[in-house]
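Friendly challenge for the regulars: who can give me the structure tokens for this chain first? No prize, just bragging rights.
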Amino acid sequence: MILSTKHLLGIKHLTKEDIQLILSTASDFKGVLQRPVKKVPSLRDVTIVNLFYENSTRTRMSFELAEKRLSADTLNFAASSSSAAKGETLLDTVQNILSMKVDMIVMRHSASGAPHFLSKQIDAAIINAGDGINEHPTQALLDAFSMVEKFGTLEGLRVAIIGDIMHSRVALSNIYLLKKMGAEVMVAGPPTLIPKYIKEALNVRVVYNVKEALEWCDVANVLRIQLERQNQPLFSSLREYNLAYGITRKLLDSIGKEITIMHPGPINRGVELDSDVADGSNSIILNQVENGVAVRMAALYLLRPQHSN
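First reply, four minutes later:
Bragging rights claimed.
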């Protein structure tokens, strides 16, 4: 089986069958990662550039490790230490990189739509590692993989996405994926951090009370406040946010049922999540990080150039 698309630009462009194929392939690769020898030759002689115009820790390391596990040759690009800092355009940068015979590009950019623009200009396969406030498809895929691992299916699962929905590419990709796979989705947070259109446009439930969201859901995927994307104050203070929307052990204990806790990272401890919740027995946050390598191996493998077959 092959994907219906040449690029992984967003969950919005994937079919349900594409998602199932990536998740099943990731399951195979997770088995590989449990072996003493964790490397396979699947992408030998394939050259991949990690083109990061924004800071990243987990996503970048996860992609780099996935590429190495698949035996690919990798090239790492950081905009702050490149000619982009001197004014070189994105297209010029990429054209120069491609002239070095690069096969695939993993790209993170602060501008929404940047990978989509690039996919219309070049032949190399592109994986979107996060574009502005638009999408972060591999995060949604690893979140889905982690939920399937825990619950066996996404069909009928109740997932609450809690926090800064307005500025979150993780939220949008998760909503697209969960709806395609038959889950029920609710978003929760302050009214100033939830887009007005989201209920009708994406067919999700909206609440402004975190306890109500927790009482409803099986899984709480908690997002951080993205202060770096806010150009005006949207709530009074981080302390006030924690008091109104932070998830504490006391709050979870008051619900009276087990709720699985997820977070895409980085966690702002004491703001959206208290440490005893982030590190508690209901948390699968570190499972998400581990599963990210297998999911990204699957995406890279399924989008590999034909000459590597």
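Residues 11-136+290-308 form a domain with the Rossmann fold fold (CATH 3.40.50.1370). The beta strands are 47-52, 73-78, 104-109, 125-131, 158-162, 184-188, 205-207, 219-222, 260-262. Your move, everyone else.
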